[in-house]
Design goal:
The chain is an alpha+beta fold and about 280 residues long. The protein contains 13 helices and 8 strands. The longest helix has 15 residues, at about 125-140. The structure holds a DNA duplex (13 and 12 nucleotides).
Length: about 280
DNA sequence: GGGCAGGTCTAAG
DNA sequence: CTTAGACCTGCC
């Protein structure tokens, strides 16, 4: 992959495994949307716009410094997905579905944002999750204006949310999840749950730690660990994954399946496949 | 209108 | 240790 820099635009060339549409629409993130033939969204307090033609991707809205500091990691650009796909290919079930999923990259989102987003995801649907997350940002996130004058909002900080009461969240229409979001913010802000420590933990230990937060069960914890901490050995199991495991492997349990440490990628591929093909 | 959606919590057997 | 029910809200 080659990286080119020009005035406020970054160009990625010759990428094996980066499909914008699949990456943003596979259900791992909630703040990126289709816009003007590409995608647009907020991460790390920046509004970015991306466009893809073939194996070329243009990113605007950030400079070289932010790219090096945050977005190389955010888009997981250092990782060799060709190698991952090769390793996952020796699973006979995964082999035929890899071509469909190829191009999905696991985004390294901000830990607190991922945690709160997946708390909101519980017993919910994706359009509404996105709506709630956006309202949360508009209501309590820092307001910014992009270079071309667009207003947008960063994800709120733990401190800001920790100062609120659950009732204050009624504006975001999150329902029973209000108190979970506040509990999460307070435990993170106070250090009762240390995200820095979680970042260094195994999937098992990290999940145990995150589950100290109300509204965080094993599935939400695994999602936060995979999408917010880059812990690729986590394998979040939601209803879709259970269905697709049953359908393709004949059982709901993934114990005994070896994904060479890329369990999270395997899970994402399976999830994408299940939703794309409406596996019931 | 009743059912349902990237689950979790609680109270029961 | 497993399992119903409840839980907000919005869209079908």
């Amino acid at each position: 992959m080659k990286t080119g820099f020009s005035e406020n635009k970054i160009t990625l060339c010759g990428i094996y495994d980066f499909d914008l549409k699949k990456t943003f629409e596979c259900g791992q993130c909630f703040r990126f949307n289709e816009a003007g033939g590409g995608y647009e969204g907020v991460a790390h307090g920046k509004l970015l716009r991306l466009r893809q033609t073939g194996d070329k991707i243009e990113i605007s809205g950030i400079g070289r410094r932010d790219f090096e500091l945050f977005f190389k990691s955010f888009f997981d650009l250092e990782r060799d997905y060709e190698k991952i796909d090769r390793e996952l290919s020796d699973d006979p079930v995964l082999l035929p579905i890899i071509p469909q999923s190829r191009g999905i990259r696991i985004l390294r989102q901000e830990p607190f944002e991922a945690l709160v987003s997946f708390i909101i995801s519980a017993s919910n649907n994706i359009p509404r999750i996105k709506k709630i997350v956006e309202l949360l940002c508009e209501s309590f996130g820092e307001r910014n204006v992009s270079a071309n004058g667009r207003e947008y909002f960063a994800f709120p900080t733990p401190d800001r949310l920790a100062a609120l009461e659950p009732e204050d969240l009624s504006v975001i229409r999150a329902g029973f999840r209000d108190r979970y979001i506040i509990d999460c913010a307070r435990k993170v802000a106070s250090g009762r749950v240390s995200l820095e420590k979680v970042a260094k933990m195994s999937c098992e230990d990290g999940a145990r730690e995150l589950m100290k937060i109300d509204g965080v069960g094993r599935k939400v914890a695994d999602c936060a660990l995979l999408y917010g901490f880059g812990n690729f050995s986590c394998f979040p199991k939601d209803v879709w994954i259970k269905r697709v495991l049953k359908s393709l492997y004949g059982r709901e349990d993934n114990a005994g399946l070896d994904f060479h440490g890329y369990d999270g990628v395997a899970q994402q591929y399976l999830y994408y496949y299940a939703r794309l093909n409406s596996i019931r």
